[in-house]
Each structure stands twice: as structure tokens, then as C-alpha cells.
Amino acid sequence: MTARAIDHLVLPTADLAVARARLTALGFTVAPTGVHPFGTENACVYLDDGTFLEPLAVGDRELADKAVATGNVFVARDREYREANGEEGFSALVFATEDARSDHEEFVAEGISAGDMLTFSRPVMDTEGHTDMATFKLAFAADPLAPDTFFFTCQRKNVPKIDRSALQHHGNGASGLSAVVMSASNPAEHATMLSFVCAGPAVPASAAGINIAAPNAQVLVLDSTEFNLALAVRAPTEGLRLRAVAFRVPDLDATEALLRGNGVSCHRNGGRLVVPPAPGQGAIFAFEE
Asked: I need a labelling partner for 221 at 20 to 30 A (CA). Which of 46, 129, 213, 245 fits?
């Protein structure tokens, strides 16, 4: 199989206004609010490498209830995550695909499907107010050993004809992802499932970690000791959890100056500038040149 590229990351949040303010303080340009037809809404951060962050909130509880009742995996897994972990976090890693139907069939055959596919459309808007309709097909996968983390592939059936160039320019200099980092008590026990979802081999990343090279970023799974060494932030030892996102920037000193000027707490660890989670920022953010 051809290794799947990372498409986006799902970051549950209690309040999109809080997420928007936090991401703006971090130096990101945040897109206008997008509304799903099943009760959730987002305020995305689009990067120049084609990936994006999806801060996700529940905007219409009644619609979300109906979606869960009718088997909408996206909304159901979001609700399960919030009930187990609170309203802020990092719940899903999403890969790009050209054929979500084929992915779904493969996930079912492998025994890692998280449920039925989902197809939906929603309007999108650029910074000038131009709108278009986007259509998506999603295929879901999950690790039975990791109930609070899930994965899906995303096929874009209708690519909106809008200009996102202004949305892809960020004051902190971020141009794309360099890594997505997970923690696990035993990274090796998740290697087979992750290799299948990512469509790439899991190789040792350290004495206690694995690395799967997506075409556009690294997917790392580290035990608590290695995680702390990498980011100087302690990670709980239970299960497999999505924890951190690393971004590429051209000038780390400039990024640090912007963050500190905006009152954002951060620390250096090796060649990384690390920002611990905060309301509206459910994951650890790290910046590196």
C-alpha cells in the first residue's frame, strides 16, 4: 500500500470562541466557523502543506443527539471522548485518501473498523466571505486497546473553489506539520494497527518508541519516559493517546518572541519550543525549525 498522508487533526474544545482566541494568541490565522449538518462545528487552522487543525465543538446538542442515535461515528466518538476525558483534547488523527470506500472495506476485513462510513457536505468560507460547498467521505478505524483515540481517512469529493492563501499565512511562521506524537505504556503493541491505518511500516524510533513515516510528517508513539525527554512534558502511562503536534517554522526565536509577547507560556527543549495544553488548545504544541 502507498503510505497515507496526514490530512488533519481533530481537537475537541468546549467553546470555539475560546479556541479561536487561544489559537490567535499562538500566532495562527483561524478560518471562519464551519457548521456540520449533524450538530458539531469547527474553526480550522489551514497550513501551507495542505494539512489542518480542526478545533471541534458541539454547536447544536439536539442535532448531535440525533446523529448519535442514527449511528454517526464521528459525533458518537467525539461524545465518547468528551465523556471520558473532558471537553478539551486531541481525539483523532485523520489521513487523506482517494477511496474511502476501499479503506472502509479494508478496516472491516482487518477487524479495526470503528463503524459505518459517513458522507456529508458543508459550506466553507474564505477570508473575503466567498463560500462554496465541500463534500467528504470518511472511513473510521480504531484500536481496541485505545478507546479514547480513533483514526479515519477523509476523501474530498468536492474541493471548494475558494482562495485559502490568506488563511494559510500564520504570524508564528508555521508552514506545516513535522510530527504527530502519541504516548503509550507499550508502543510496540500498537505497531500493527498503526502500520495498517497509516499504510506504512512501524520502525523503532528510540529505545521505547516507534515511528511511522507519513509522506508529510512523522507519526511517533513514545512511552512516558521518551515522551518526557522529547517534550519535557509528562504524559500519563495508560493506553495509547494522541498528545502533541509539532509544526515547522523558519525562525524559532521569532516564534518564541511572538508567543511570549502574547502572554503564552512556553519552554525550550532541545531544538523545540514547547507550549503545554490550555483551554482552546487541547494538545501540546511544539515548534521546530
From this structure: 46
- Strand, coil or helix: 244: strand
Residue 51, domain CATH: 3.10.180.10
pLDDT of the chain, 289 residues: tens digit per residue: 689 999 999 999 999 999 999 999 999 999 999 999 999 999 999 999 999 999 999 999 999 999 999 999 999 999 999 999 999 999 999 999 999 999 999 999 999 999 999 999 887 766 667 777 788 999 999 988 888 899 999 998 877 677 888 999 999 999 999 999 999 988 988 999 999 999 988 888 766 799 999 999 999 999 988 999 999 998 766 789 999 999 999 999 999 999 999 999 999 999 999 999 999 999 999 999 9
The Cα–Cα gap between 161 and 169 comes to 18
Residues 191 and 135 in one domain: no
Report the distance separating Cα 80 and Cα 73, nearest Å. Answer: 10
User: Are residues 237 and 115 located together in one domain of the fold?
Assistant: no
Q: What is the pTM of this model?
A: 0.94
Give the up-direction half-sphere exposure of residue 239: CA atoms within 13 A in the CB hemisphere.
Answer: 13
Residues 116 and 246 both lie in one domain: no
Distance separating alpha carbons of residues 186 and 203, to the nearest angstrom: 14
- The CB density around residue 4, as the number of other CB atoms within 10 Å, is 23
CA distance linking residue 21 with residue 171, whole number of Å: 14
Task: Tally Cβ neighbours within 10 Å of residue 177.
Answer: 23
Strand ranges (E), the chain: 6-12, 34-35, 40-42, 45-46, 52-58, 92-96, 118-125, 131-142, 150-158, 176-184, 202-206, 209-214, 217-222, 240-248, 267-269, 272-275, 284-288
